[in-house]
Design a protein that fits this description.
Helix content: under 10%
Shape: globular
Radius of gyration: 15 Å
Bound molecules: thymidine-5'-diphosphate
Number of domains: 1
Largest sheet: 5 strands, antiparallel
CATH architecture: Sandwich
Number of strands: 12
Order of helices and strands: EEEEEEEEEEEEH
Number of helices: 1
Amino acid sequence: MYQKPYLVEYPKIGNTMQGYISVSEKDNLPFEVKRVYWTYYTPENISRGGHAHHRLEQVLIAVAGKIIVETEMPGGIKDRFILESPNVGLFMPIYCWHTMQYTHNAVQICIANMAYEESDYIRDYSEFKLLK
Ligand code: TYD
């Protein structure tokens, strides 16, 4: 069976006087990092994503602003996650169809287990729906 998407809470080191550091490293990351990318200045009326992946696993973090992530796994189980804490990430497994909406100030960082490969994408929803 497929893994499900889930929220990961990262350590929040610091205090309100000095500010905070959060860390994602070997102990709290379910894969070896091969790529980090970030998304920003997304207009509020735009939905990004709209795809799943054959091999890509990633963790999404809203390091600023708020991101609403809607997911669907093969078989039809849907979830909705709100990312608005810089110390909380969303693990997205393989074959997780997802769309994302951002507040105007949102900055999303993605930590991924593989390099960018267009052939890894499933961008056709009807193709995704054929997955069992
Ligand atoms: P895409 O993954 O579809 O963006 P989103 O899921 O945020 O809607 O990628 C958008 C474009 O950026 C697409 O043309 C591929 C390109 N891209 C790269 O070249 N390298 C990358 O690491 C990523 C994530 C995207």
